[in-house]
Design goal:
alpha+beta, Phosphorylase Kinase, domain 1, 2 domains, 6-stranded antiparallel beta sheet, 4-stranded mixed beta sheet, 17 strands, about 20% strand, globular, disordered C terminus
Length: about 375
Amino acid sequence: MTIRSPLRLGPVRRFTRNLLCPVDILGRPLLLKYTRDPAEAREEIRGHARLARHYRVPALHTHLRVPGGHLLAYERLFGGTDQGLLLDLLNADEPSGELRAYMDQLTTAYREAILTTAWLADPALVVRKLYWDRAAPGGRLDTYYAGKDFLVADGLIDLPISSLGTYTLSINGRQHRLDWAATLRRLRAHFATDEPVWAALTQGDPTDVNLAHPLAWFDYDTGGMNSIPGEFANFLWYASTLGGWLVPTYNPTAFADHPATFAHLPANTPALRRADVDHVTGTITIDYAPRLSAPRRIAVTTYWNRLVQPIADRLWPGEDLANLLRPYLAMRILGVYNLADLAPEDRLLLLARLAEAMSPTFDPNTYFFPVESPCPAP
């Protein structure tokens, strides 16, 4: 006679500062989440309760204080190696009908929830973690960049970032300027105002690892009333840049259960073709080829056409979406990874993307849906 243990533990995975572990208790599949930060645990519990009214979320069975932190026990949804997330639908050579149906379902759910809950809110009442707190004194902008100077790209463009504003940036044949200190001041000032923002009930951090397949939402510490432009910028930047390129490059352990991510990394990694500086003319030339896999391109395009544009038409008729998205996009570029810690080539590519986003000619329709074409001849 074989006696089965009433408790079965799966592999422990680390996601940022949290630990996740699948467990079966008496045949019941659960997902245990351990977090050290008590404030974050409280926000997670509150966010889950808020979202449950409008979105499909796994049941939260219990939450306990344990030594050193909090333990939350969730219903465990379907998943496995390269299964169970939006990420897995994106890790393909071509977009599937399943991906298209999923994106239609996702954008429909978001459109209904946003339009039902949207209101013009005092920024003090919205979730502040990803934007306002990071731009505030002592936040990530200060922690990463205040009082620090670093090279634009060691071995490629050996100029201090503080002098970048004195040069013209020729990026894929278009002229830009990027004053580093002024950009940081501009972002701090934007998120220090008390001007009302359009907010709605969302998960707040809509990445392809926080969206389950079949459709459900994970990770709730930013669940609540979120800035709508911030929500849009977050998904668009993650789907087009972070999820396919930077996160698997700099946090590969997060994809241990989704190894197909690495096979598709080349299809989503931009290629730096030229980087040089002419001190006589004061010009830095950066030519790069954007890359975005066909499934990610479909996801971004569907999200834009079925969610961003219809919501913008209702809430901001006639307004320039570029101006609404710009500060949030810039904060995603600067406030996720410390640019100084990245490889020089990656840092230079992100600075080029930041310059394009901060430019008066910034156009989301071309920025998030780049057409891969040969770089201009030197």
